Amino acid sequence: MHEWALAESVVKTLKNRKKTVFEAEVIFGTLQDIDEEIFTFALKEILNQEDFKVKIKITKEDAVFECLSCGKIFDLKEGTKDEIEKENIHFLPEMAKVFLKCPSCKAKDFEIKKGRGLSLKLKEK
Ligand SMILES: [Zn+2]
């Protein structure tokens, strides 16, 4: 449960730049083990205690993989056909390496290009 710690570091980042930032976009990758509900709740709670207002937008980012042997770019849907496997991958990002394979050359050697963890995009004044 690191949602609160993550929410705190997001707020800390915003606080450091509160003079310039007016909107923050929190991007959730599909491959992460963060509970979005807990995180959003934590973020609101912490922000309520602060003396500045910033618009927070939460968006989702789909996972994208790149095959290391043939260079094919593929997503979660192409990498596996199994719904249960997809669930596992969603909750345990490290499982992606076990379940997914390149749809074109079937290699299990790939890199996660997008959609992992959480990132922050700031819009400035
Ligand atoms: Zn490949």
If you had to describe this structure to a student in words, what would you say it looks like?
- This protein is α+β, with helices and mostly antiparallel strands and 125 residues long.
- It has one domain: hypothetical protein PF0899 fold.
- It contains five helices and six strands, in the order αβαβββαααββ.
- The strands form two sheets. It has a three-stranded mixed sheet with strand order 2-1-6, with no helix packed on it.
- Helix 2 links the parallel strand 1 and strand 2.
- Helix 1 packs across helix 2.
- It is elongated, with a radius of gyration of 17 Å.
- The mean pLDDT is 87.
- Zinc ion binds next to loops.
Features:
alpha+beta; binds zinc ion; 5 helices; hypothetical protein PF0899 fold; 6 strands
Task: Write the SSE topology.
Blueprint: H1 3-16, E1 21-29, H2 36-48, E2 55-61, E3 64-67, E4 73-75, H3 76-79, H4 83-91, H5 96-99, E5 110-114, E6 118-124
Helix pairs in contact: 1-2
Bound molecules: zinc ion.
